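Example is below:
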Amino acid sequence: MRSRAPLSRPQVTRITLTTALLLTLITPALQGQNTPPPPPQQTLEATVPSVTVEPGGLFTLPVLLSDPLPIPGFLFLADTNPTQLQFLSIAPGAGIEAHTTANGAPPVCDLFADPGSCFALWQFLWPLYDVAVYGEELLLITVIAPPTAGTYPIDWFLGADTGESAGGTALITVAAPPDAATDFERGDVNDDGACNLGDPIALLGHLFAGLPAPNCYDAADVDDDGVVGLADAVNLLSAVFGTGFPLDESCQPDLTEDSLGACERAGCAP
């Protein structure tokens, strides 16, 4: 398999999606004047999926072919704004790897990627590429996500030697990073920076006397079961008087998934 190292911008003439369309139009003319007119262009069943990713990381984007008709080869092109997303590499997917393993290296295979564009040119010749045999995954594109949340487009085109083609825009959604979890001291219900008798009194007052809710329900969830109730007050009394309930009073975030909400407090200091 032949692969080219990325070239600097002055050395590269960018192959755009327009170029791909022109290639599909002029190929019959290059085969000679006696070539009959091509049939009406059909739609190739292919996709590059839209995905949601974490900011600033690497992710892999598959190029999937689902068309039931075998193809002898293809040209793939993709473009993006390199000030946002950046292509790192393009490589054969599981389907091409399976075809190569079964039938040997193809006579023509070329892959190229720079930050703003990538392309693949592949000829299978014989046997043809059949998704029922080799699978749908043609290519894998490795992309660098930007650090800023938002939605970023990748325009793509896939043209088969049969004259069929497909194209579209994959939308890459970069999710906002989750808010950092607030550190708290479990059992410090009244948020005074210490776990003592005032805390079970404050919790019982909230549960049964209508006193204000704790600033941090996770601190009041003494047994960490996701529910604040009488059992927490009992366990907290047990911990305060040293009669059995083990209470971790270290300053740390809650690592248990629950619906108690975020803490609004500042009493915990590591």
Remarks:
- The longest helix spans residues 17-30.
- The helical segments are 17-30, 94-103, 131-134, 198-209, 217-220, 230-240.
